UniProtKB/TrEMBL annotation:
InterPro entries referenced in this protein's UniProt entry, alphabetically: HypE, PurM-like_C_dom, PurM-like_C_sf, PurM-like_N, PurM-like_N_sf
Domain of life: Bacteria
UniProt name for this protein: Hydrogenase expression/formation protein HypE
Domain PurM-like N-terminal: residue ranges: 39-150
Organism lineage: Bacteria, Bacillati, Bacillota, Clostridia, Eubacteriales
NCBIfam families the record matches: hypE
Family: Belongs to the HypE family.
Pfam assignment, any one: AIRS_C
Annotated gene: hypE
Amino acid sequence: MTEERILLAHGDGGALTHRLVKEIFLRYLRHPALRELTDAALLHLPEGRLAMTTDTFVVKPIFFPGGDIGKLAVAGTVNDLAVTGARPRYLTAGFILEEGFPLADLERVVASLARTAQEAGVAIVAGDTKVVERGCGDGIYINTAGVGVVADGCDLGYHRIMPGDVVLINGTIGDHGLSILSKRAGIEFETPVESDCAPLNGVTEMLLDRFPDSIRFMRDPTRGGVATTLNEVSQSTGCDIILDESALPIREEVQGAAELLGLDPLYLANEGKVLIVAASDAAEAILSALREHPLGSDAAAIGRVEAGRGGAFSPGAGQASELTAEPGPVSAQGKGRVFLRTPLGGHRILDMLAGDPLPRIC
């Protein structure tokens, strides 16, 4: 039996297009606003500030240990909303399909996308499908938009970060990047490495509900990993960030495989992790709360925010220097840097990633 595949006619708006929409998309995506099949969804939003994001997913391969492009599209979009303090509500999904792409693979992706949306408590309310000629795509790309609502009074941002704050993460580092690399290269490890791909809004909403005044800032460390994301924070605030190498939660198999391949886990992408900058007096309570959540069992405090030294670092007696600045917001005019404190007490600079070793990671 010949495997059914995407034809150019699936994108012409005619009978095959309508069949594709009915038999695959509407089979799994069932929100009333979408099933109306009008040119725009009419939606109700609660009071609050509107948060909106857009993203495009071109991951290769499209199926990988721990996820696929459908799951990634929902989780990635939800997470971009969640770390701003928004409660994600609605998503759109635009599919760019290459002629010859198997219909069975499309159905598998759509089913995964729908499951992840249900898990995250968001609705897919609008969509689109385009078909490009064979050789002009790479099977499937997905473009999304996401809408959420930020409650009045929620205030997260660079302007809230100050010396003395603690940097937390909800779990292990580098899993997604290494999962993609191993699948792409056909490398098998003795202990399989799976992507951490997951929607984080359950975690972020719990934190904001329980610690509304102590959470300063959140960000998901996707492309460029933890090191690059924290460089963006340090450069935007003028603060230094000192990471403790011995506190970094990195799986042994990820660390070993990364060393073998000449990669640093701190620069590998993550798709189910959130970096949290929090007030130091609440850090232990926040960690305890994270560890009670299924996506936070490996949560750790990994570093500290300090006053910027203008790019220089002069620790005394092998330790990070004590803070001399009064607590308070730091001007973005400073030259903040990210440093890694080694178990021997030395420090090395963690620069922003220059040249992604893993393109097509998300």
